[in-house]
């Protein structure tokens, strides 16, 4: 199949593109950047926000895996532009990656993802949506970005269920070559753990001595997180723990 991966240069999309190529699919990557030398992929330079290059990116594809994100409201408009181009190009299947709890935790970014899901559902294209919990990379990055501070802040009374990006990519790659499935079962990591515990685990792994300071997130978003709206304990299908991820990736 001819498969376009939007966000094929990102944390998740890069691994999806690798998996698809390894299973014999013809993979095209959409990026705002020019093709790196020696890329094994078909490459389209374009921008989902402006719409530049999108018609060329979707031309002749059977499936679009939409893993690009602009990390905010731009995601809705980007998804609209992608859908419109896909419809003009003969209505390939659209596989979208979303986040567990986008309808439970009213974080600005989650609200945008929920609206983007609605755009996919109403697209008239054959579609599949997979929601995943936070990637290990994100949990690690939340502590890493604070490396110059004397303490490490984290969220009080909030748990996460981080998952390895390779496991999400594998599921997404499976769904890409499958029939359209609508909303499929969520995918979550193997363990639900306190944010404080995850921050301490990260600091131990990188050999950094810092006090971990839990902060109370106010408002509806804080309540949504504390209630665990972003968790999927009944879908703890990931096997790679945060410790294992840290051992492998040495962030
Ligand atoms: N991170 C998590 O914990 C997590 C958990 C569950 C679900 N998800 C979802 O998984 C998806 C991928 O997340 P990620 O963490 O892998 O993202 P990421 O590493 O931030 O990558 C974002 C990608 O989007 C592309 N992009 C950004 N703006 C663009 C634009 N205007 N036009 C075209 N491409 C654009 C970037 O490509 P270029 O820079 O090359 O243009 C990049 O490849 C997102 O939809 C996210 O919501 C993430």
SS-based class: alpha/beta
In this entry the ligands are:
NADP nicotinamide-adenine-dinucleotide phosphate
**CATH fourth-tier homologous superfamily:** NAD(P)-binding Rossmann-like Domain
The succession of helices and strands, N to C, reads: EHEEHEHEHEHEEHEEHEHH
User: What is the mean pLDDT?
Assistant: 97
Q: Radius of gyration, Cα only, in angstroms?
A: 18 Å
CATH class: Alpha Beta
Largest sheet properties: 7 strands, parallel
CATH fold label: Rossmann fold
End-to-end distance, in Å? 35 Å
Bulk shape: globular
Widest sheet: strand order? 3-2-1-4-5-6-9
Number of domains: 1
CATH architecture: 3-Layer(aba) Sandwich
Uncertain segments: none
Percent in helix: 25-40%
% residues in beta strands: 15-25%
- Count of alpha and pi helical runs: 9
Number of strands: 11
Annotation keywords:
alpha/beta; 19% strand; two-stranded parallel ribbon; binds NADP nicotinamide-adenine-dinucleotide phosphate; 251 residues
Write structural notes for this entry.
The chain has 251 residues and is α/β, with parallel strands linked by helices. It has one domain (2-249): Rossmann fold. The chain contains 9 helices and 11 strands. The chain has a 7-stranded parallel β-sheet, sandwiched between helices. Strand 5, helix 4 (108-121) and strand 6 (127-132) form a beta-alpha-beta unit. Helix 1 (11-22) crosses helix 6 (165-176) and helix 5 packs across helix 7 (195-206). The model has no long low-confidence stretch (mean pLDDT 97). NADP nicotinamide-adenine-dinucleotide phosphate binds at residues 6-7, 9-13, 30-33, 47-49, 67-70, 78, 97, 99, 113, 132, 134-135, 138.
